[in-house]
Amino acid sequence: MDQKILSLAGEKTADKLQELLQAVKEDDLANLLQNQAVKGKAAGALLRAIFKGSPCSEEAGALRRLKIYVRSIQLVESGDLQKEVASEILGLLMVEVHNFPGSLLVELASEFVSVIKEGRLKNGKSLELLPIILTTLAAKKENVAYGKGELSGEECKKQLINTLCSGRWDRQYVIQLTSMFKDVPLAAEEVEFVTEKVLRMFSKLSLQEIPPLVYQLLVFSSKGNRKKALEGIITFFNELDKQHNEEQSGDELLDRVTVPAGELRHVEGTVILHIVFAIKLDCELGRELLKHFKTGQQGDFSNNTCPFSIALLLSITRIQRFEEQKASIIKSFKDLQLLQGSKFLQNLVPHRSCVSTLILEVVKNSVHSWDHVTQGLVELGFILMDSYGPKKILDGKAIETSSCLSKKPTQHACKLGADILLETFKIHEMIRQEILEQVFNRVVTRASSPISHFLDLLSNIIMYAPLVLQSCSAKVTETFDYLSFLPLQTVQGLLKAVQPLLKVSMSVRDSLILVLRKAMFASQLDARKAAVAGFLLLLKNFKVLGSLSSSQCSQSIGASQVHVDVHSRYNSVANETFCLEIMDSLRRCLGQQADVRLILYEGFYDVLRRNSQLANSIMQTLLSQLKQYYEPKPDVLPPLKLEACILTQGDRICLQEPLDYLLCCVQHCLAWCKSKVMPPQQEKEEEEEEGVYQDLEDLLESITSRMIKSELEDFELDKSADFSQSTGVGIKNNICASLVMGVCEVLIEYNFSISNFSKNKFEEVLSLFMCYKKLSDILNEKAGKGKTKVANKTNDSFLSMKFVSDLLTALFRVLIWRYTSIPTSVEDLGKKEKGKSISLLCLEGLQKIFSAVQQFFQPKIQHFLRALDATGEEGEEVEGSVTHRAAFQIRQFQRSLLNLLNSQEEDFNGKEALLLVTVLSNLSKLLEPSSPQFVQMLSWTSKICKENSQEDASFCKGLMNLLFSLHVLYKSPVILLRDLSQDIHGHLGDIDEDVEMEKTNHFAMVNLRTAAPTVCLLVLSQAEKVLEEVDWLITKLKGQVSQEMLSEEASSQATLPNHPIEKAIIMQLGTLLTFFHELVQTALPSGSCVDILLKDLCKMYTILTALVRYYLQVCQSSRGIPKNMEKLVKLSGSHLTPLCYSFISYIQNKRSQSLKYTGEKKKGKTAAVATAMARVLRETKPIPNLIFAIEQYEKFLIHLSKKSKVNLMQHMKLSTSRDFKIKANILDMVLREEEEDDGDDEDDDEGTASEHEGQNKEPAKKRRKK
């Protein structure tokens, strides 16, 4: 039969072939084809013959074709055919599809859909035919029977795709089905059907099947709906990450959650690679991705970002586009800071992930072959460090970043950059060389800028793996060549950072020594200073065998530095020779400038503590140096040759020998040697060292006794001496005085340390102090008589912290005991000096100690408080013990403040009260805001403010600041602001003099003396912070609405979660409105109060406008405008806007009176008039901005009224007489006095803005009258 069919097919006409095929049953014909195809014989030729004899113009032929198509598809799917045969059959089927009539195409496509939905696909090969069928069907112009009706070909195709996407897909054919759709012409709605279906299938597949599906989906997304595809992929992996981190179970992601983390990260890495590749082929996809991130960041960066999306962004973003991401990171840190400082925001906004945590998680995940992410990480790290590192200030030093928790967002960003680079360095070997090169380049090329953050990073890198840097030794030695040209601080930081490397690599160490020796004899002073600093560092870190270990000074060495330790111990003998060579080099420095010697003297003590075997060499050097300036004859006064310390070169006089630093070094080294090194091992050394120590002790003893006997005249430094900076004698006397005072300080500490609390020694200490004080008083007196005090620079004290603490303990036991046991009120007045009693000095010391501990020793606060609490049990460890212990200390100081406030008015000491408030402020920061102790502290502070009236402005400011700082961590302070504004209004009176005020008395602390400017500026500052919080919330809502509006889910349900935030915003603005309502009616004094009030009012209207614009965005929903929003608008129209115009008129009237008064009083004095003009112009500058803000608010209210069909303007009274006219008399006066045009422009622009009488009179009805 097959041969007969083939022979008839060869004829020119197909009539006989058609007759033969009609005679054969369709099933027999299909079986014949099947047999031929399975045997691998000429199935293609037979199929062509059948198609030739089955024209679609005849119904029978078309039905025969349909039968053959169905059987052919089954054959291809069966897997029984050879690959070539299957491909040939599929090719023929594709070619002949376009001949089918529409109805049979629908039937054929429906058969395909049924096969897919019922899971009858065997290998998915036949799916290649479906796109051709659907494309052909869509091209049919005539209507086709579909179901019970008729549809166009396009509509049929849409229905079929809808049915296919709503049915079940076998997971093993998802990728093929997705690939199939890319060849079908689809409308936007159909693209969305398919995209949603594929995204739903993600959760049904195994992890390994997801990357190829993602690729196919991205290719498919070129047809449209790129945004949904990308969002779906990012959301899926975000959820996977969350599930994995939380280790949750019991949902559809369980089978992927339980896989090892490594596999998940590898899959994520592959998916990111696919996305990057797809973006290279489709630029629009990249733009859509960046748009997605940008939109997400408008609302909430942390909530719309996950480690996967950050990694994706790092992979596709090159350095020029990082600016936006940098700004997003800083915004995230600012948001976090804002949240931490406001209980109001914490209650409204859920906990957010820190951006640092997310990005560092990306670094950690990148170990799983995420090589395409690492370059982006390195670039981001350096951009953050470059942009947000420490900044230079006026004296050239960097702003120090403290270890306290309240770091600025920029400091957090810089630290994040350093953490990214360090962690990336640890994980990726390939990138290490590049990171190190970039760090070294910045250290060398940015010498004029602060680079401490790069030096810290370098130190951390080298500490992590010093052996790794051996491969980069060429770069290190190249950097050493620039040491002579770098600032001293940079040299010290760099050498300290590379110190572990010096122990590993002999070649690097030798290179450094060579550079330092050259620098020692360089002509530049900075180079010689750098050489001394470098040699001192080497001495500290290359220990000689037998040196005592000093735990507080020794460098911690990690496990990766085992080789370093071995190398160091093995070469201890060689180290001794090496160190003694360096000591010889350093001795030569003792003949150089004072700056070089000073570095040496400051460094010897640290060297001695770390390398105690060098004690003899160091002490001998110091002894011989000191003898040069010591007067050996015991009866000669003074005992020191001060003349020899000063160098005179022509007219130039400068310090040659910093004798005070030399003596300080001797004193510290001697004390340390006596306590640590005195019991030596060898007898010869014992005698030699004891001799040096004894000589130094004798010298110090002799200097002490003769310094006490010496008068200021012996130094030629009495009251008659010249101390001016303009003469050579004056400069010399200033240097001598500084040396004498420094020597006195050193001797005071030395004699106290050896005194063993003997009376004689203490008398000597007092005598030395009197010598110091006499000289200090003379210098202060002379400086006070001079024209400027700039030249009177305070020198650093030589007294060590240990001495100060020992002395204070000896005098008062502890400061807190002394202050609380003997209050200032009961102290003998005779003991007071310059208004400060001893107890007050103790309190001042306490305040500084509390501040220092909180700022610099945050982790040790608990130990500090435990040490303060002498009655506490040593072993007591309870959670929240910091809060409990802080509360105990707070109670003591609360009692002291209450006693002070309850004392007689003449006994009230404002300085003491302010110090107590400052101490309470410091301690209150240690209280947990959720603890009852915190609430108690807030209640107590509020009570003090309400019940006590003090006219001391500084005390009032400190106490009110404490109240606000506590209040914002408990709840929003808007009610507090409203009450305070009423008090201020009551005390200062109304702008309308005819209105009598009924004084409120919410807070007694507000009185006529403190109301303005003290309390007024404080409340305005707090109101500004509340406005900032409200603005932040509105921006957050707008970002969420933007995202919702881009998707079709933006319904009333989608916006429902915003309702509590909206309500909170309206409540805050409503209460603030009443606050401003009071202040704009208050007769505030001219100056900062008026200026800041106008600016805050402008912000108030700007934020009201922002809220109106937000409702313009969302009022499409059926929810409409809330009733409380309508009330807010009504309140602004009745209680604020008219009063603002009245306040503007009040300010302008005061300005006119001020100008008139000044002009009459100072006729002929143009400078006075010009100053007055400048002042009033500055004060009225914000007026045009305020008027513009009000009008913008009203403009958008009109838009919102039209859109919402609610008349919001019924309560707004528009201005009718805003006459910005030029006043000729004022203009003439300005031109006459200043001869400038600027006054004309300023006056014209600022205008007069007078309002009609109705507006001026209406608010008077709402004022409180007696």
Automatic annotation (TrEMBL):
GO molecular function: DNA polymerase binding
Stretches for region Disordered: 1232-1266
FANCI helical domain location: 284-365, 550-779
Alphabetized InterPro entries for the sequence: FANCI (IPR026171), FANCI_HD1 (IPR029310), FANCI_HD2 (IPR029312), FANCI_S1 (IPR029308), FANCI_S1-cap (IPR029305), FANCI_S2 (IPR029315), FANCI_S3 (IPR029313), FANCI_S4 (IPR029314)
Biased composition (Basic and acidic residues): 1249-1259
Domain named FANCI solenoid 1 cap: residues: 1-53
Entry-linked Pfam families: FANCI_HD1, FANCI_HD2, FANCI_S1, FANCI_S1-cap, FANCI_S2, FANCI_S3, FANCI_S4
Ranges for domain FANCI solenoid: 64-280, 373-536, 800-963, 976-1227
Any one of the GO BP annotations: DNA repair
Comp. bias intervals (Acidic residues): 1233-1248
Name of the protein described by the UniProt record: FA complementation group I
Organism: Panthera tigris altaica (Siberian tiger)
